[in-house]
Amino acid sequence: MIRVPSRRNGFTLIELVATLAVIALLAGAASFSWSRLVAATEHTETVNQTQRMFALARSLAVSQTALITICPLSPPNGCVDDWNQPIAIFRDVNNDRLPDDGLIHRTFSLAKPRTTLYSRTAGRGYFQLSADGMSHGTMGSIVTCSKGGNGIKQLTYLALNIAGRLRVLKDENLDGTITLPWGTKISCQ
What we know:
It is built from 1 helix and 10 strands, in the order H-E-E-E-E-E-E-E-E-E-E. By secondary structure, it is an alpha+beta fold.
């Protein structure tokens, strides 16, 4: 009588454990990469939206030949220095940092779950652009900080120059600090 070897179905316990271990390692690596990607995307989106906001304000100042103010507004519509609040762009012909006739041209929400912003405006908390598109005595900067996976911080420094344009410096080595050309160190608070 000839014996036919029986056919095995399934996996051994060792094969199953090894397969599950490889899947767990790949899932962990993918999860870390995904969280870094989400944080980097949020940071880039915030920086791009900040640039669009200032470009819109500059365009509005020139097209309406009026003083334009950019600032976060408190409930009674006064400028405050909390750039994680919604930020308004409005005509401010009388330069009182209140929307003329209570009208706000546009509001931006820049803050994201992993991203915070703060201004470097010597406590003013607002920027203004004159009718020729130039900065109206309110040069300063916005610092954007994002926290990614594994403690990595992204920092971008957006400085408004006298011509009413933003200059952007990025933290290339992701250590959470930037040294400005004149030696001042900027870091996430």
